[in-house]
Specification:
Layout: H1 3-13, H2 18-29, H3 31-44, H4 46-51, H5 53-70
């Protein structure tokens, strides 16, 4: 059985192993720290993004569409 299948089975039955629950809570509580490099990168290159916004928009919409399609 694949690890992803095990995670979904745990979520469906409403029980998670204690170690997984503690790790996920720690990650969720500190999630903003994970976004700091991305935010600072956007701030650093904001002028370039403002000039070339179309590829970013297309990549964002295409990525969201592919993700949505793959989760069906």
């Amino acid at each position: 059985m694949a690890p992803c299948s095990c995670c979904w089975a745990c979520l469906l039955y409403g029980r998670l192993p204690q170690a997984l629950e503690q790790t996920s809570q720690t990650l969720l509580q500190n999630m903003m720290l994970l976004f700091i490099p991305t935010i600072s990168g956007v701030m650093l290159h904001f002028d370039r993004i403002a000039k070339e916004w179309q590829p970013f928009l297309v990549a964002g919409v295409a990525g969201a569409a592919i993700t949505f399609w793959s989760l069906r």
